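SAMPLE LOG
Freezer: B-3
Tube label: C17
Construct: single chain, 319 aa
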Amino acid sequence: MLRNVAVIALPDVAPFELGVLCELFGYDRSAEGLPTYDFAVCSIDGSPVPSRSGFDVAVKHDLSRTEAADLVVVAPFDNPWYGPPESVSAALRAAHERGAWVMSVCTSAFALGAAGLLDGRRCTTHWLHTARLARQYPSAIVDPDVLYVQDGRILTSAGTAASIDAGLHLIRQEHGSAVATMLARRMVVPPHREGGQAQYIETPLKPVECATMQPVLTAVMETLDRPHTVDTMAGMAHMAPRTFARKFREETGATPHDWLISQRLLLARRLLEDSDLGVDVIADRAGFGSAATLRHHFAQRLSTTPQAYRGTFRSSQPV
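STRUCTURE (predicted):
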């Protein structure tokens, strides 16, 4: 049972994420029937740690505090891709080897990577940095779409508020759904958020910059409501479909079908955010043909629904 929690705070620690960990594990809520943890924030040598926001965090423990912890968490810190000191990596490895939970929040996944704890494991981090995490630790299996990932007793979370989702997931694993739901209500947050972080990635419609394909892509983007296919696009380029598909991938890095679906989803997302149009109309304007097809692609690519997406990114509007 999870009872002892140690959070490692490194120089330029992120105050919000550190505060989330304190909220999840550092308050005595036994009077409300919730579990209480032996909680501590520690630094490398027990000295105060400067935060990103210009104030210092006073701590009372050094890394030896992690030796008794059932959960060791690394709070985010500036420039994490350079890795923490080896003493931190050693503490993380030791915690994992003895069977403790090890958790990262946002970009502190890079600290777990530096310790070798992501090799061969599914993991995530803030969507802005998932590509860098994958490049820096090629043995890691980076999932850019999820809010958090549990692989064995390694837990990684996406950016900022996803630390709440990951923490509640861990509490649900250790103490059951009823306890996690009670704590979520106490924190005034949902016990479980639908979808993943793919829906939060900012992907506006971008100008087309291709040599041969640019006229075709521009024409298609201006007429996404029409029933474009690989064959019709190839006809616009005056090429055989197989030649067109090969040339298209060379210039864009995507297949014609994937590119077309991505552009239609971008348009649908923009219409959901900026208009009062119903889902059926948006599906038609984006070229999906039906609301069912639009919902299918939202679920497949964004792990959510058009209605939920609109509810998240726009104030209450009729759908």
